[in-house]
Design goal:
Blueprint lengths: L3 H29 L6 H24 L3 H20 L10 H5 L2 H24 L21 H17 L5 H28 L7 H19 L5
Helix pairs in contact: 1-2, 1-3, 5-6, 5-7, 6-7, 6-8, 7-8
């Protein structure tokens, strides 16, 4: 259960190793027969169906072990990325994301994603460098004077988007968007708490850093507004 990468990598190797055989030997026979079937894709499809069976059997056994469950999700996402980008798997075929979208698994994924995101926010805001820009000494790069915590937070949101963007239904994606909105709200509350401590020095370094953080986050969110 702690090594899903073993069978996921094995399947990717089988697909890669057999592709030349299917393209050179099997596909010409199908073409000659007037068939529209793509031999390599059918082979990939059949192997992915085996993985779906394996996942369906394994997931209930590790659903409440955060470490194992997170590792499984991470490995499945890496597998899916390579399956589509390298091996040309079709989005119309069943995929691992359909298994991750099933109710009990999906709700667990959301819960764990939120838990680790909040932990990340705790660590980024408790850092001594939270309100310092990592580019503070490079003027032409740092026009917005973005504090480290704001940049790290937006990267966190971007990573979450990247993880859920291939979910098969819009309703599931919207649930993840709801999580991101919660995180933005939580981050805002945390910034307000820090800001209230700095109101007596509103031209001080920390107060200005918070204003810069808010401006940067608002700007990036506006840039993302066209991303459906």
């Amino acid at each position: 259960l702690n090594k899903p990468e073993w069978y996921l990598t094995q399947v990717l190797m089988w697909i890669g190793n057999q592709s030349k055989f299917f393209d050179d030997k099997i596909q010409p026979i199908l073409n000659k027969a007037g068939s529209s079937v793509n031999a390599g894709l059918e082979f990939s499809h059949a192997l992915v169906m085996l993985i779906l069976e394996k996942l369906a059997a394994d997931i209930p056994c590790l659903l409440y072990d955060d470490t194992l469950f997170c590792h499984l999700v991470d490995e499945v996402l890496l597998f899916e990325r390579e399956l589509y980008s390298v091996h040309g798997y079709l989005s119309s075929f069943p995929s691992c994301m359909h298994i991750l979208s099933e109710e009990s698994c999906f709700q667990r994924w959301l819960t764990v994603e939120k838990k680790f995101a909040l932990q990340k926010m705790d660590s980024m805001l408790s850092s001594e460098a939270a309100l310092i820009s990592q580019y503070k000494d490079i003027t032409d790069v740092d026009e917005m004077k973005v504090p480290d915590c704001a940049e790290t937070f937006m990267t966190l949101l971007l990573v979450i988007t990247d993880r859920y963007k291939n979910l098969p239904t819009a309703s599931r994606k919207l649930q993840f968007l709801g999580l991101q909105k919660e995180l933005v709200d939580d981050f805002k509350i945390r910034l307000i708490q820090v800001m209230k401590e700095e109101t007596r020095a509103s031209l001080g370094f920390r107060y200005c850093a918070i204003v810069n953080a808010v401006n940067y986050i608002a700007t990036v969110l506006a840039d993302w507004a066209d991303n459906v």
